[in-house]
Design goal:
With 260 residues, the chain is of the alpha+beta class. It is built from four helices and 15 strands. The strands form three sheets. Strands 3-2-4-1-12-9-13 form a seven-stranded antiparallel sheet, covered by helices on one side.
Length: 260
């Protein structure tokens, strides 16, 4: 199946190190060769890059590896097709607008018999189960809230929606509106929260090492979410089955104990 990569930070940070290792899974350390994509939030805007070529060879992916775009919320995806042809319109992440903000979504898995009616403003362009699920989530969020809800309210609604989709198959996903990043695991998803004192990290998929202490300040907080751990010398935490977490400003946000 596909691979997911997400980053959530309290200050704009580049994802070059993580993406370098992640892209190796598109033909070198993995066989996810049916396209790729990445989206960076900048204020209310989104830089969105997709390509139906594999990330290991794509000139656009090479640009991302070399050009340190800084963002507080990033979602990336490398595809191994299960539904829908290898085509640009079927490459994740997908982008839609709701309540005057862009929303970005990427999915790892295969949903069977999940094609609910779409009767609002959200309709898929491609042929994937993933994009259909994303459009349905957007539709249901719009129906559930009359105006822009808080992160807490969104998280509680997202738990309900994910629980309705997950019985139809594997449903690992990342979702962001630029203010927070939601992550749901059906099977495999891991995260790490990096903060002061920062240490060195060595990629699992490539012979690359970085000393984060030379590139950060003591106040920086960075959360990275990925299908399988990207580094070999850091303490990654596995999601529980059917667990949904939300990350805000580089740390896990608890909707049960936090207001707003």
């Amino acid at each position: 199946m596909c691979q997911l990569l997400g980053m959530n930070c309290n200050t704009p940070t580049d994802v070059t190190f993580s993406f370098t290792g992640f892209a190796q899974r598109a033909g070198h350390t993995g066989d996810h060769s049916d396209g790729w994509g990445i989206a960076f939030f900048e204020d209310k805007g989104v830089r969105h890059f997709v390509d139906h070529q594999r990330a290991l060879d794509s000139p656009v992916a090479d640009l991302i590896r070399r050009y340190p775009i800084r963002s507080c919320n990033v979602i990336a995806h490398i595809r191994k097709a299960t539904q829908g042809a290898v085509a640009l319109q079927n490459c994740h992440p997908f982008v839609r607008e709701l309540w005057g903000r862009y929303w970005v979504f990427a999915h790892n898995g295969d949903l069977k018999d999940f094609r609910p009616p779409l009767h609002g403003n959200f309709h898929p362009v491609g042929a994937t189960d993933s994009e259909h699920a994303f459009c349905w989530i957007m539709q249901e969020l719009a129906k559930s809230h009359a105006q822009v809800p808080s992160i807490r309210e969104l998280t509680l609604t997202m738990r309900e929606l994910a629980a309705r989709i997950a019985p139809h198959g594997t449903f690992n996903f990342l979702l962001s509106n630029g203010r927070a990043l939601w992550a749901h695991a059906s099977t495999s998803l891991f995260y790490i929260e990096r903060r002061h004192p920062f240490a060195s990290a060595h990629l699992s998929d490539d012979d690359v090492q970085v000393d984060f202490s030379t590139q950060t300040s003591p106040s920086d907080k960075v959360a990275v979410i990925v299908t399988a751990p990207l580094t070999r010398n850091e303490p990654w935490t596995a999601f529980k089955r059917h667990e949904l977490k939300v990350f805000v400003e580089g740390t896990v946000y608890d909707p049960e104990t936090t207001v707003g």
